[in-house]
Specification:
The chain has helices at 3-19, 22-44, 53-76, 80-94, 103-117, 125-135, 142-153. With 154 residues, the protein is mainly α. The chain has two domains: 3-94, Hypothetical Protein Yqey, Chain: A, domain1 (Orthogonal Bundle); 103-153, Arc Repressor Mutant, subunit A, CATH 1.10.10. It is globular, with a radius of gyration of 18 Å.
Length: 154
């Protein structure tokens, strides 16, 4: 992981501590814990001791997705205060992610990757999604991208 991103996360934690912002403090600590977990996972899998930016973006995107799923469950259970708490965490996590692609940009990126790797059918969907995740980690919703890929290759 580059020091710049790690420094941004650490600085956000320090600022939250100074401002006594409990939500921001807890969320940035969760981010650091998830990164540390991935670092340990990589070490035990023999992938080295670090976590690169792509992996950090994956972690952050996964954290956002988990919270969106939680919001739906909390709203279905009429636990609106917990749903609001999850929304606040999403805002904090998204500060560290690059801007998300809109549907047009995503379709263009998918088309470009399909052309780059020479994908021709659904059998190439896995390769296409892998290339997208590598190139656009944290920048697009891969659930939506999967549907676009399926539509273009199917």
């Amino acid at each position: 992981m580059t020091d710049a991103l790690r420094d941004r996360i650490d600085q956000a934690l320090k600022d939250a501590m100074k401002q006594r912002d409990k939500r921001r403090m807890a969320t940035t600590r969760l981010i650091n814990a998830a990164i540390k977990d991935r670092k340990i996972q990589n070490r035990s899998a023999g992938k080295g001791d670090g976590v690169d930016d792509g992996e950090v973006m994956e972690i952050l995107a996964k954290m956002v997705k988990q919270r969106r799923d939680s919001i739906k469950m909390y709203e279905d259970a009429a636990r609106l205060e917990l749903a609001e708490q999850e929304r606040e965490e999403i805002v904090i996590i998204e500060e560290f992610l690059p801007a998300q692609m809109n549907d047009e940009e995503m379709a263009g990126a998918v088309q470009a990757v399909i052309e780059d790797i020479g994908a021709v059918g659904l059998k190439d969907m896995g390769r296409t999604m892998g290339a997208l995740k590598e190139k656009y980690a944290g920048q697009m919703d891969f659930g939506k991208a999967s549907a676009v890929v399926k539509g273009l290759l199917g």
